[in-house]
Write a structure and sequence with these properties.
The chain is an all-alpha fold and 259 residues long. Helices cover 71% and strands 0% of the residues.
Length: 259
């Protein structure tokens, strides 16, 4: 998408906000039950979702596209809603949220030092890791409330990735061609490092949800090719449009049902 097309993204986010309001919250009266390792993992992901987005929004304002700045605010609102949903899920199990986590602190500080292009690339690392994590949480739990919360967050994340790809395509088009592929190679290395870190830090939870560490890393890295193609190719919206519960294009071939 070109910068002027971000009015369409604003419309999509606003439609989703209206749909979410009409749907209402999950039934929090149900008491969620999970393995302790999964709850510890959810607590750490909740910290990562809980931010005000001040740095990103300031850079979006300076980018000079009011439509993009508006869409970015709606994106941040969805991320904050994820933090709220996860907090309510933890509360339904009688568990508190964490005040912080070292991995999130480092991630936020690095992002704030960068310009919009590099901040979005780092944000995309987190988004791709989250995409695989919430799919594991949705598919691997037997608790209905946890499944519902994970499915709602996953549906949002599937829309967020093509949104960021659209902005990065605009940004990369302004870069000299010789710099584009080396920068994306470094991004893939950062993605690999982050996925390895999460696979190690959340390994017990992932195993409980039926996803081994190696499988998690391979699945995250398997989505990077579509993202790079969306960033570099004109007219490409991203690896998935993100209809609720339909993450086929972001699902590795080994996970897809036979035709």
């Amino acid at each position: 998408m070109r910068g002027s097309d971000f009015a369409e993204w604003t419309r999509r986010f606003e439609e989703e906000r209206e749909r979410r309001a009409a749907l209402g919250d999950p039934d929090w009266r149900r008491n969620a039950t999970e393995h302790p390792a999964v709850w510890a993992s959810v607590q750490r992901f909740q910290v990562g979702e809980d931010g005000d987005g001040t740095s990103l929004l300031a850079k979006a304002d300076r980018a000079g596209d009011p439509d993009y700045a508006r869409a970015a605010r709606l994106f941040i609102a969805e991320e904050q809603n994820h933090a709220r949903l996860l907090a309510r899920l933890l509360a339904s199990a009688g568990l508190p949220t964490l005040s912080g986590h070292w991995s999130d602190t480092i991630f936020v500080r690095v992002r704030r030092l960068l310009g919009l292009r590099l901040e979005l690339l780092i944000l995309m690392v987190a988004e791709l890791v989250a995409l695989r994590y919430y799919r594991a949480l949705r598919d691997g739990t037997t608790d209905p409330l946890t499944t519902e919360v994970a499915a709602r967050i996953l549906a949002d994340e599937e829309r967020h990735i093509p949104f960021h790809c659209a902005r990065l395509h605009t940004s990369f088009a302004r870069l000299p061609r010789p710099l584009r592929h080396p920068l994306l190679l470094l991004w893939r290395l950062a993605l690999l490092g982050a996925s390895l870190l999460v696979a190690t830090d959340h390994g017990r939870a992932l195993g409980t949800l039926g996803v081994g560490r190696a499988r998690f890393v391979a699945d995250v890295m398997g989505t990077s090719g579509d993202v790079i193609a969306a960033i570099l190719s004109p007219g490409t919206d991203g690896p998935a449009q993100g209809t609720q519960g339909d993450d086929t294009r972001l699902t590795p071939a080994s996970d897809r049902p036979a035709a």
